[in-house]
Specification:
2 domains, eight-stranded mixed β-sheet, binds zinc ion, Metallo-beta-lactamase, Chain A
Length: 307
């Protein structure tokens, strides 16, 4: 008996430590999980609205670009802003119940597009990654190298984009319109995608300039869309009058950061869009902008950064 009491006494302290440790751990886990699921800067009303069509989320990643397409159970992410944006994107995805990405697209190898994808590849299950296959020299080699190693580690299928590729996800079609990768200017190597759901079309243009815009017009692909992601963050050297005529969007979205050093969007570019009676939405002004496309209607939701 004395031996037993002594063993019990010996156990008391470690048990107490264990209980304190578990208590602290539960608190840490609570905040960890909470932090993982709370989408920073995004209002609760998004939870109240669950359309069954296609949702296009232009995420506010500051001076960069990241677009999430959701349809049924499918999720496609096109670009991921800079590295630090990747953590917010993962939170945002989980907040919207996305546990797995069917397709991840790296339009081109600049850090304001692939940086955040490094984190996404680290933290998410990804089925397939679409790459531009470019070997153009960029100044973002660190991001490129980290992206490549994370991609290998993730185990996702890596596919080099080719024009006319078409993916089908829950009634949403994703088509590759442009997949050049031999320009010395990496922006011009951006993969250009078209997303179609019922009668709604969205054109995602990466950072292409007038050169690729003209090429797209000349090859005669269907550029007509409802929502145009203005090319290269609304740069003056993109979004030519001809390209706007061919795309004839009712809505243009510009993804750029407040007071960015590039002066994006350019005044001339904005003028050309307005001349074509295109409604312009900007992430630097409105924050994240979501378009819910259903029954041939487009409902616009922003996170209320500006009323
Ligand atoms: Zn860019």
């Amino acid at each position: 008996m004395p031996t037993r009491r002594s063993t019990a006494d010996k156990l008391k302290k470690p048990l107490l430590y264990l209980l304190v440790f578990l208590f602290l751990l539960s608190g840490t886990l609570y905040y960890y999980v909470k932090g993982e699921t709370d989408a920073p800067g995004f209002s609760d009303w998004v939870d109240e609205y669950t359309p069954d069509g296609m949702e296009v989320h232009f995420l506010d990643v500051g001076q960069g670009s990241s677009t999430l397409l959701l349809c049924g159970e499918s999720a496609v992410l096109v670009d991921g802003g800079e590295y630090e944006n990747g953590f917010d994107i993962v939170s945002y995805l989980k907040h919207h119940g996305v546990e797995k990405l069917d397709l991840l697209v790296a339009t081109h190898n600049h850090s304001d597009h692939i940086g955040g994808l490094i984190v996404v590849l680290q933290k998410m299950t990804v089925n397939e990654v679409l790459l531009n296959g470019s070997t153009a020299e960029t100044t973002d080699t660190q991001s490129e190298n980290e992206f490549t190693s994370r991609l290998l580690f993730n185990g996702a299928i890596a596919t080099t984009a080719e024009a006319e590729m078409v993916y089908e996800f829950s009634g949403m079609q994703i088509s590759v319109l442009q997949a050049n990768n031999d320009s010395a200017d990496e922006n011009e190597n951006s993969i250009v995608l078209r997303a179609d759901f019922e009668n709604t079309s969205v054109l995602l243009t990466g950072d292409i300039g007038n050169e690729t815009e003209n090429e797209l017009i000349n090859i005669g692909v269907n550029l007509d869309c409802d929502i145009l992601q203005a090319a290269h963050h609304g740069s003056n050297h993109s979004n030519s009058a001809d390209f706007i005529v061919q795309t004839s969007p009712s809505i243009a979205v510009i993804s750029c950061g407040e007071n960015n050093i590039y002066n994006h969007p350019g005044e001339d570019s904005l003028h050309r869009l307005r001349q074509a009676n295109t409604a312009v939405y900007r992430t630097d002004v409105m924050g994240t902008i979501v378009f819910a496309c259903n029954d041939n209607n487009i409902k616009i939701i922003s996170d209320g950064k500006e009323e």
